[in-house]
Amino acid sequence: QVQLVESGGGLVQAGGSLRLSCATSGRTFSTYTAGWFRQTPGKERESIAAISRGGSMTYYADSMKGRFTISRDNAKNTVYLQMNNLKPEDTAVYYCAADTRPGAIWLRAGIASSEYRGQGTQVTVSS
């Protein structure tokens, strides 16, 4: 089992950047694929990205390509989400997750389908 705790959310102006972090504990983090998804009230959960166990492969939902970058540091048991040129429609609760499936398969199934996820961190983008 793996535990995940997100941090780094907050209020930012449109056009700004944020970097979210997700600290993990429990079983060896490097044995899991890691990913991010987000949820806005009244909307379905949106997959953002996944990253392979070693960090060499990344996978992005089509709508998330270009402004979001996922990375990980297995030595620190942490996964990151760099978000640039933020827009008001990016306002959501962002969650990190871990899974045993390969990133491409997990992304197609939906990052939120994982049983391992954090409690989420709120990101609010003002116009």
Poorly predicted runs of 5 or more residues: none
- Residue share in helices? under 10%
Count of DSSP H/I helices: 1
Series of secondary-structure elements, N-terminal to C-terminal: EEEEEEEEEHEE
Integer average pLDDT: 95
Our measurement of the CA-to-CA distance between the termini, rounded to an integer number of angstroms, reads 40 Å
Largest sheet composition: 7 strands, mixed
Q: What is the beta-strand fraction?
A: over 45%
Derived from helix and strand composition plus strand pairing, the structural class reads mainly beta
Q: Give the C-alpha Rg.
A: 13 Å
**What sort of overall outline do the alpha carbons produce when their principal axes are compared?**
globular
In total, the number of strands is: 11
Question: What can be said about this structure in brief?
Answer:
This protein is mainly β. The chain is built from one helix and eleven strands, in the order βββββββββαββ.
